[in-house]
Design brief:
0% of the residues lie in helices and 40% in strands. It is mainly β. It is elongated. It starts with 13 loop residues before the first strand and ends with a strand.
Length: 207
């Protein structure tokens, strides 16, 4: 069977790729929510050096059939990989290096859109109170930095994916022992915190 670029709305749609938590494992592909001919999903996406991006699958048991980038940001359908000359070039990518996004795949317009909802915040350092979070600056895709004071006796710090709300008891954060993973724990959960080694000063630039 030859690949085809005819685009139509599938019954199900999944996100896969090293630009998301699923990686290039179809069995871990993330299912999207469907409404009419539109699919949406809020999730964590990343871009940067070595990241190939994401594409969309119709099943989580195989890497094809798939919807890929036609080169102009539109959807192209392939029943197998015979018609994909360069798979990396036909993936979708986000502009920010890492963030919490709303992904929309609209089969009426044949378009894919990415709405950035939040980038990482830094909590901890001097205290863990809500309202004390600090927002790093994204210098280039995937590289965030911030100048701050750190007290090494306060139990460390965490990089959370989005700013916690006043009513929130849990938050998603980057796991220091598995950088590709996002973990969900109570905001003040003691494990998996980042700490300064060979502590010498209270003034630091973190990146």
């Amino acid at each position: 069977e030859k690949a085809t670029k005819t685009v139509s709305s599938p019954e199900n749609l999944f996100i896969v790729g090293d630009g998301c938590e699923a990686g290039w494992d179809s069995s871990k592909a993330i299912i999207m929510d469907k409404s009419g001919n539109t699919f949406t999903k809020e999730l964590y996406l990343r871009n940067g050096e070595g990241i190939e991006g994401i594409k969309f699958l119709t099943t989580n048991s195989n890497m094809y059939p798939a919807y890929v980038n036609d080169g102009n940001g539109n959807l192209a359908y392939y029943s197998n990989d015979l018609g994909v000359s360069n798979p990396v070039d036909q993936n979708f990518n986000v502009k920010s290096g890492f963030g919490y996004y709303k992904v929309t795949v609209d089969f009426d317009t044949n378009k894919v859109s990415f709405e950035l909802l939040s980038t990482p915040w830094l909590v901890g350092m001097k205290n863990w109170d809500k309202g004390q979070e600090l927002k790093p600056v994204e210098e280039k895709p995937g590289v965030f930095s911030i100048k701050t004071e750190i007290w090494n006796d306060n139990g460390g710090m965490k990089f959370v994916i989005r700013k916690p709300s006043e009513l929130e008891s849990k938050i998603d954060y980057l796991n220091p022992y598995q950088l590709s993973a996002v973990s969900t724990y109570p905001i003040d959960f003691a494990s998996n915190r980042w700490k300064v080694v060979n502590y010498e000063s209270t003034n630091y630039i973190l990146s």
